[in-house]
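Is aspartic acid placement plausible here? Inputs below.
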Amino acid sequence: MKVLKFGGSSVADGGRIKEVVEEVFQAAAKERVAVVLSAMKGVTDLLISAARSAEEGSDDFKGFLETIRGRHFDAVRVLFPPADQAAALTPLALMCNELEEILHGVELIRECSTRTLDLLMSFGERLSCVLVTAYIRARGRDAVLLDAREMIVTNDHFGSAAVNFERSYQRIEARLSPIRGIAVIPGFIGATEKGVTTTIGRNGSDYTASIIGAGARAQMIEIWTDVDGVLSADPRIVPDAFVIPHLSYEEAMELSYFGAKVIHPYTMVPAVERNIPLLIRNSLNPSAPGTLIASGEAAGGANEKTDGGRRAVTGIASISGISLVNIEGGGMMGIPGFAARIFSVLAREGVNIIMISQASSEHTICLVFRTAEGERALAALNHELTMELETRRIERFELIRDLLVVSVIGENMAGTPGIAGRLFSSLGQAGVNVLVIAQGSSERNISFVIEEKDHVLALRTLHAALVAPRANKEAVS
Ligand code: ADP
Ligand code: ASP
Ligand code: MG
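Reply from A.M.:
I modeled the complex. Tokens:
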């Protein structure tokens, strides 16, 4: 079996749906396929906006709802001949009515819990799947719409629910194995054991595809998006970025964790577990070979050819909207368990620490997280460390905003001397100030924090200094 996942831009309108369904038919002519779909591009954002305005008691939610309804109805008009449009519109209209009722409920009680928001967001993927399934059937093929909520079992951490792999794999296998036609499955959503709808994190349809692929023991998971593959940097920031033909699972995980939005970072987890390759492809350019993400050996072997036998830096990624807290004070020196206290209080608050750095004198600990979580983190730390502050064992906390985490990633950076030197000297020459540095012991990743204002300059400088020379070398050879 092959799993094909199409992102929001690949199902953005009727024209795009027509094209991707051709890809599905081509794949289905060769083997069994399961199709995982995102909501139409922008629909999840519209649903969130609708929820927020309903919660504020504003009528604006109706406008957002009309846009959502209109996008789906327009696609029906493109995809179906006039005589068949009414039948295709009916289930979509019913779902939009249900959505309206829930939004109306939110407006009345002026409250939208994370649980309700998950239910509202689930409509995006459910609507796109109803539409595409109907279209596949109208084209004369057998298609079965499966409810991801009966397959992906999660906890009730609404908004980014954790998946229970064992339970999910059992259900996926049971649901998928009897199906002979094309299975269509909404991405992004799951349900608790009790059947309450959850979502598994923004951009999570990639992750769904991988869970389905692992559960069905697929031979391949294809992630179809709007770029030719995983690029050496975000193409919107570095115009010279180029497609990376092969990545190890670990490299892909590092790149996506540190901001390469093209694939959700968790996607690699189920795929690694069952050793299923992932292929990132472009639905706007299906003839492009894409990026193959596979085990280190497979990917590394392919990479041996480049950079004098060993490829060092594979790609650069960045996360903006970052803040850091510096905790300073002599009182931390040599006290066992101090870091543990800090981590557990932040974990309790649900603050995700992206990077940590501690000076060797233990005089400062620096924690890096998203600005959206910054105030919460600061308040929690202030509360936890009141005594240390009063007794001056800790001198101060400092919250610095408007920062960016940059990561330079490459499987073969380990044991390639001089990378860090080239990295920081090129930044120095460009006048970019580096606030914090961290390197994992795997040496697969060097991450550092700079000011947001240096974003474009830093990424272009690093790409030219560390990544692009490889492309030039390949072009010459
Ligand atoms: P989809 O809707 O298919 O899930 P996304 O918008 O989530 O697509 O991800 C694709 C986008 O990710 C690309 O259009 C590109 O702008 C962005 N992107 C950021 N970093 C990278 C990268 N390193 N390689 C490829 N694309 C990237
Ligand atoms: N529709 C969801 C989102 O926009 C999930 C996805 O597209 O992957 O985040
Ligand atoms: Mg995506």
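Short version: Confidence is low (pLDDT under 50) at residues 301-310.
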